[in-house]
Amino acid sequence: AVNSDPDNTRIRTQLAEILINENQTSEASAILNALPFDVQQDGHVAALMARVEFADTAANAPDLDTLKQKINQDPKDSDSRYLLATLLVGKGEHQAALDQFLELIRRDRSFKDDAGRKGMLKVFEMLGPNHALVGAYRKKMMAVLY
After folding, report:
1. What angle do CA 98, 104, 110 make, to 5 degrees?
2. DSSP secondary-structure letter at 24?
3. What's the CA gap between 78 and 84, in Å, rounded?
4. Of 64, 123, 129, 134, which sees the most CB atoms within 10 A?
């Protein structure tokens, strides 16, 4: 379908989503990054781009149990907390991921240029503005930030 209508951004977006679901994130990323800027700003496309970014970050991370153990041993281990959050996003455990990002904001706001807040915003984008977790965690994030 893409070959028959290469300018159809909807078809390219759908192909990228299929590739993400098949764990072919580098191919999906190439397709998404080649979309026009205004299409990239669409909520669905932005959510797909966030999924790719989380998947790429989590690709070389230790397993969940190892990361949890590291955090239990050192609650200030921002890198492990961030990786744990990204793995949880990939598993669809959004509330647990948001909890980790929120804790990262509390403990180390400057980590990787405010990665905790940015991670939360990407999860919000993935879930969509009407998801119950988005409203609840937006309030929690604002309370921690301000």
Report:
1. 130
2. -
3. 10
4. 123
